[in-house]
Amino acid sequence: QVRLVESGGGLAQAGGSLRLSCEFSGTIRTMYFWSWYRQGPGKQRELVATITGGANTNYADSVAGRFTISRDSAKNTVFLQMNSLKPEDTGAYYCKARISSRPGSVFEYWGQGTQVTVSS
């Protein structure tokens, strides 16, 4: 079954760092974008960072300068390096990707989420 699998969440202290990973288990013919979203307690899911097939990146204002999105195309994996963590970064982090595995077939996939908890 083709899917996205996140890992790397956990507990960190404010000011600390965590790195999230998201691996796509199928074949990638064309990667249009990978994104990380998060959903804090009682909040709506929000876009955190995106990396396109051309390796352009965008960040939410709340994480710009602290988080870095990157990818390892050979391993079908995208990363989110999170530095200078704040308690408000707490939430479930989800990876999303728009991928084509064969001609004429484009799908968007979501991972199952990984929990990040930042203590003050």
Describe the structure.
With 120 residues, the protein is mainly beta. The model has no long low-confidence stretch (mean pLDDT 95). The chain has strands at residues 4-7, 10-13, 18-24, 30-39, 46-52, 57-59, 67-72, 77-82, 91-102, 105-110, 114-119. The chain is elongated. Strands 2, 4, 5, 6, 9, 10 and 11 form a 7-stranded mixed β-sheet that branches. Strand 7 and strand 8 form a beta hairpin. It is built from no helices and 11 strands.
Short characterization:
The chain has 120 residues and is mostly beta strands. It is 0% helix and 59% strand.
SSE blueprint:
Blueprint: E1 4-7, E2 10-13, E3 18-24, E4 30-39, E5 46-52, E6 57-59, E7 67-72, E8 77-82, E9 91-102, E10 105-110, E11 114-119
Parallel strand pairs: 2-11
Antiparallel strand pairs: 1-3, 3-8, 4-5, 4-9, 5-6, 7-8, 9-10, 9-11
Any key phrases for this structure?
single chain, 120 residues, mainly beta, seven-stranded mixed β-sheet, four-stranded antiparallel β-sheet, 11 strands, 0% helix, elongated
The value of Rg in angstroms is 14 Å
Work out the number of β strands: 11
Our measurement of the CA-to-CA distance between the termini, rounded to an integer number of angstroms, reads 39 Å
What structural category do the secondary elements indicate?
mainly beta
Mean pLDDT: 95
Q: How much of the polypeptide forms β-strand, as a percent range?
A: over 45%
SSE series: EEEEEEEEEEE
Largest beta-sheet details: 7 strands, mixed
Distinct helical segment count: 0
Flag low-confidence runs.
none
Give the proportion of residues in helices.
under 10%
